[in-house]
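During the second year of the project, the team shifted from modelling isolated chains to modelling whole assemblies. The rationale, set out in the original proposal, was that interfaces cannot be judged from single-chain predictions alone. As a representative example for this report, we include one of the complexes processed in the last quarter. Its constituent sequences, exactly as entered into the pipeline, are reproduced here:
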Amino acid sequence: MRPNALKRLWASGGAAVNGWLSIPSSFAAETMAHQGWDSLTVDLQHGVLDYGTAVPLLQAVSTTPVTPLARVPWLEEGIVMKMLDAGCYGIICPMIESAADADRLVRACRYPPRGRRSFGPIRATLYGGADYFLKANEEIVIFAMIETRAGIDNLEEILAVPGLDAVYIGPADLAIALGAMPQFDHEKGVAREAIEFILRKTTERGLVAGIHNGTARYALSMIELGFQFVTIASDARHLAAKAGEVVAEMRNGLKRDQAPTAPVKATY
Amino acid sequence: MRPNALKRLWASGGAAVNGWLSIPSSFAAETMAHQGWDSLTVDLQHGVLDYGTAVPLLQAVSTTPVTPLARVPWLEEGIVMKMLDAGCYGIICPMIESAADADRLVRACRYPPRGRRSFGPIRATLYGGADYFLKANEEIVIFAMIETRAGIDNLEEILAVPGLDAVYIGPADLAIALGAMPQFDHEKGVAREAIEFILRKTTERGLVAGIHNGTARYALSMIELGFQFVTIASDARHLAAKAGEVVAEMRNGLKRDQAPTAPVKATY
Amino acid sequence: MRPNALKRLWASGGAAVNGWLSIPSSFAAETMAHQGWDSLTVDLQHGVLDYGTAVPLLQAVSTTPVTPLARVPWLEEGIVMKMLDAGCYGIICPMIESAADADRLVRACRYPPRGRRSFGPIRATLYGGADYFLKANEEIVIFAMIETRAGIDNLEEILAVPGLDAVYIGPADLAIALGAMPQFDHEKGVAREAIEFILRKTTERGLVAGIHNGTARYALSMIELGFQFVTIASDARHLAAKAGEVVAEMRNGLKRDQAPTAPVKATY
Amino acid sequence: MRPNALKRLWASGGAAVNGWLSIPSSFAAETMAHQGWDSLTVDLQHGVLDYGTAVPLLQAVSTTPVTPLARVPWLEEGIVMKMLDAGCYGIICPMIESAADADRLVRACRYPPRGRRSFGPIRATLYGGADYFLKANEEIVIFAMIETRAGIDNLEEILAVPGLDAVYIGPADLAIALGAMPQFDHEKGVAREAIEFILRKTTERGLVAGIHNGTARYALSMIELGFQFVTIASDARHLAAKAGEVVAEMRNGLKRDQAPTAPVKATY
Amino acid sequence: MRPNALKRLWASGGAAVNGWLSIPSSFAAETMAHQGWDSLTVDLQHGVLDYGTAVPLLQAVSTTPVTPLARVPWLEEGIVMKMLDAGCYGIICPMIESAADADRLVRACRYPPRGRRSFGPIRATLYGGADYFLKANEEIVIFAMIETRAGIDNLEEILAVPGLDAVYIGPADLAIALGAMPQFDHEKGVAREAIEFILRKTTERGLVAGIHNGTARYALSMIELGFQFVTIASDARHLAAKAGEVVAEMRNGLKRDQAPTAPVKATY
Amino acid sequence: MRPNALKRLWASGGAAVNGWLSIPSSFAAETMAHQGWDSLTVDLQHGVLDYGTAVPLLQAVSTTPVTPLARVPWLEEGIVMKMLDAGCYGIICPMIESAADADRLVRACRYPPRGRRSFGPIRATLYGGADYFLKANEEIVIFAMIETRAGIDNLEEILAVPGLDAVYIGPADLAIALGAMPQFDHEKGVAREAIEFILRKTTERGLVAGIHNGTARYALSMIELGFQFVTIASDARHLAAKAGEVVAEMRNGLKRDQAPTAPVKATY
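Output from the structure prediction step:
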């Protein structure tokens, strides 16, 4: 089985630089896959993606050595198993709030006897190799998202679930859960405290901690803190950011002369 | 019929800031359409688009006031007419090399008696309104791309073809045609000379001159020169540029510690 | 945030005329969006649609002021949240049978603290605006479908669930549940009695009542009764109805002369 | 080879009632295919269709005995041959203006020695049967569209081209060509005269005459005149017509009470 | 309603030869549908399919008399009901482990009063006919997959659930569950014993037993044992097998001369 | 630029084993790409493919070292250039009948000064590398199909066109052109004579000769003769062949017992 490069990177103490795919285009994904990310995550939760549209993105990523991951929309066995069969080397699952949730997640991702993943690695074998079944339980990484009050309260027992590899923090949902505004890159406040708490507990337990970030600067600071998996923004945000910069430079250069025929609007 | 905002902008002496769509995703297109462009061009020549994949992009652009245009892959009546029926308010046609080419292009874009466009504005009426037929010959803009030696040699007679509204320069092809390397933003050399020659002849004739640019800075300088239609890069280049910047910042911050698991590669 | 026109219409005592989208084509949806409906619902339950095919339909609807809604296939958090992120301004959820069901539905549609909707309004922000998060809990409308015996029995407690805005009646399922035949436009019988009972309880509680109808005539009578949200048939039924009328007129005109080469068959 | 029912129908003196597909949805096409049409034409010229989107429509039509045809976007060999390979039993080609055009069309549709159609009936054999090659030249029907002044002027020599089966009139383009407004169902005027002229010449030559119509009433009158192939409107027009009727009835019933939140707009 | 040919075949003591569709292409499905299978199953669990991609496959199958079935990804009401509405005449549901599971499955597939299937057979009526509702509870067949230890332990009570028609064995999952390697065509060992046990119990109860096989030879032996529904491999396996045979023959013929430029790799 | 493995293979005297893609599924293509072919050709002429559906297939092929090629539907610049921009390393063009045809083909495939290919290698650079422009004229291979009487008559002058790399024989079209039946693997007769004539002339001129074959056995014999590029059947034929074998074995085993519910039909 093709080794999971993230596991080797983590074992050596390194941190993975993860990109995020939300645009349903295999060409956009292939473009992203050539930018130097360690891994790329197809986001089926908030991205404009579902199983049918995500598969060609995974193929596009597989034209390069970048490690493919998926965030699933919810803790539902059907889609978790389908994304693994499609060749993802890791699953990020939102809204894990208890050991029972975490165990259900792990069972969906592992073949028996640890789990109850059904056998049929239809693209995973093409991508991973003929011995996929023998090694998949070892190579596939599982991230539980901690982003609610209950998730924080039950963190220790979640971390104790055998087979869980990592925790992933969604700072926006975490902030909302704690009464703050949804944003990335918290420098202080309740969300920041929760982030540091989750990081400490996760690394104490020997698991990998990951987090979604808005900027490279903040992501680097998170690696300094101890995170070993950092996402920066998303393909749609990169696109909007650069296009917005270009248009702003144009409008600034033109401003004495003309107004735009179509107004600039904010983008998520 | 919904007025063509580009024609009003040009009549007032303004220059249109044009974005370029090559990613076959209506979500990416809708994201682009919110960044403040005057117009967006679906590129069926070099973009990863054909008719079937381009139509949803036009719908996405139509959720905003941005003016929709298309570059067709070649001077072929079938696709020119289909893109107009799909609601494009302008056609950019590559490799126009003679008055005969230009006339054939104009005839494909205009209803009789000027042209031979076939009637069936299936989405154009939804977008433009019930009186589309009555005004389309007036509102739709036609760009001839001048990008070869023959195009330059025959420029005056091309510009004399009745019904042509504008010229669009592809600096990369123009450069290759003149023995230089394919690139944007020529500051000097044969391609620069040809650009200035085409601009002068076009504006002398009262037509609009447009050009594809790599950067906002250069596009602004082209407007200074007299261009009234400037494109800056493309959605795919914006995506690659910003993602590349982010990854470079990460790799730079991490460089004492680790190599990437997947190498950075160059992007068109 | 772009206001939800349905909420204003209802507040003024008006009734929304809702169209129904089951054909997976953004062109068909755009055609529907130009016919004068107040709102259009993408039907992921019985329509030939899922998330991937529905998103372009929402974009097509967004080329007009028509309010976009979705019926989800089942009470499953993954798809409810995805349709909201895609920009739907209301969710119609089938088979709500208890206060627990209704509460789970509301929690999936509302951000904390009322609910547990996860943050990531990827297209909703493009459609709704930059302040989407601040107002979404107020603007998004939630419909519980009452269409089973249990739904009727538990109606009062369902209506008491905070955050529920409206009830939607599926007359066909309601009829089957009560031992009658699946049909729309009940004039009498058990289904009619149940419809009137649900209407009375819903409006007493101050919520909006909605219903699916086969004909405009019946829909108007339902508005007379007090419904403020009426659907008439669907895109597929409109298509089949008009095509069927045309062919029938042809066959009738031709009947002395010839039989069809392909027989007419009934359509759902 | 599965016989071409149109040829049998015509041989018996009957007229084919043809439906028109412009919506890129195989479900919409399957719905249309159950309404009693003799044939259905996928319209790649003005419909929102190209090869990739049209193939599933042909499969949907093939779930019934309805005969599948295609209108191609232009006289281009590539797409003509691809639509035949996809299983179409007839080709309608726009803008035939000379015997040379007609001959080029026939040659694209016939295997040698009559033509130069390339061999590769990939779906045509699934649909037509194992002996497709042996009978295709006989069973496939070819329509030349006469819709320009030149087409009328050269009609006799066009009709004399061996292998041409039928003529199809596009009344809207014909009217524009003759200086009138684009519409269907001409009762008088230059377009009507041209229609009758084309009909007379076509039937004198022993070929079948076909025409596009807006209403069943007019189509029946055209059959009375001698046309043996009549199209009535299109799927998109049927959809818009019925939805428009329903909304109008609603708005009329509600008119004392409320204005629509989204205005009705005209549709092609 | 179009009769379910499988039920007639089983009633006469026959065994159905079932093909398996995992490739998301309606052309591949139509090709499969012409090979002589009694039924074809669209596999939404391990196949590269979801609802949106599966519907055109069902249309392709419906161009022939082959009976269409679906395997759903998991016991989730949303997708079960959607596949039935799309015209499937049978549902195969994985991982049934208890009578409660089986009952939930049956309730999702049957209209009231037996079940709680929601009414809206949007394509099922096109395929099955106007009386679909009246007969669907009788014609649709329901398969529970028995492939875990719990499924075996609770087999008798599962089989006793009213409305269940058949059991389907996934030998790979069954083998893993019993501590063996995932494979088809067990000749001996724990998986073989379990297969025979499930067959005996199922047929004693009067239900149909089905099984997935790797080869025709083994499938025939299973029919000999008493199975009445046998699947052989899948479309992707057929494709890989024949292509692999061809390339092997080429490589063998060429072996003295050259190595391949791209290595052969194992396929699932 | 990534080297074109075919050119190295040919230079060393080897023969390329080429597979053929006609199924519009990137999963089917990825499955094919793992079977050991030297190259895979996406067939836009007779395959069920166009540009939009072919691009994901090229991405799927690019997950492996297999060399990607395309057969275009006709000698049309638009599609030739688009397939090159999409990353194809070779173009096979049907129906080349003269030196003018061949020169037009070469000019569409080569950048100036040899040709007039337009610059915009949007995916080709991702696949080939940053120096694509500098080396593409050297690395891309161009095949002219010789399959008509005129092609044979003008063979010498076609072969003399500078820049042409290879000839590809379509035995079915060649046979029809010569009055024989369309088939592969001619052992004798006029088609065989023509094949040997084309081979001799091509190799005398120093170009590579390629041919489409039905079986590996025949393809090996063609390599013996001197062909250096052999295709065997296609993905659709592999699928049909193996499925057909499996069903035949089942029907044979069952034949005393039952007839199929759906008859076997012939496949192209």
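The first helix of chain F runs from residue 5 to 11. DSSP finds 13 helices and eight strands in chain F.
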